[in-house]
Write a structure and sequence with these properties.
single chain; alpha+beta; two-stranded antiparallel sheet; elongated; Peptidase M16 middle/third domain-containing protein; Metalloenz_LuxS/M16; metal-binding
Length: 136
């Protein structure tokens, strides 16, 4: 391909969608014969196969024993680890990836929050700041 605005006078065809001017010419027999000549240029070769690219992308199926263990782990309810008048802490092991995961639900009760619009906005701001800090 040769693209340049100065060759638009030589273009005799127009592309359908973008209306680009172009011309099409057959290759010369000399160019074709030089390309077909087997010169074994070492600079031009295909890369070696990448050993890190998988050949098969199918998922390995779980054995019946592994399926049963997974179902049992998912069925288990979270156990209460700690409980007091003010809080309760549950624990459930992640059955898929065995990574730590946490959900935290906090309830703030403050009589000043509902006594005035200023108190309500202050409590709302405090809750948003806590949420932002805990999500970092």
């Amino acid at each position: 391909f040769l693209i340049a605005k100065k060759f638009t006078d030589e273009a005799d065809q127009e592309e359908k969608w973008f209306k680009t001017q172009y011309t099409s010419q057959p290759f010369s027999s000399q160019a074709l014969s030089s390309w077909n000549n087997n010169n074994n240029n070492n600079n031009l070769h295909e890369p070696h196969p990448n050993i890190y690219i998988p050949q098969h992308l199918s998922v390995k199926p779980l054995s019946e024993e592994e399926k049963q263990k997974k179902v049992e782990k998912q069925r288990r309810d979270p156990g209460i680890v700690y409980e007091s008048e003010l809080s309760r802490l549950h624990h459930k092991q992640d059955g898929d990836f065995n990574l730590p995961k946490m959900n935290c639900f906090l309830h703030f009760f403050n009589s000043l929050a509902v006594s005035s619009p200023w108190g309500l906005d202050s409590m709302n701001l405090f809750a948003r700041l806590c949420d932002d800090e805990l999500n970092e």
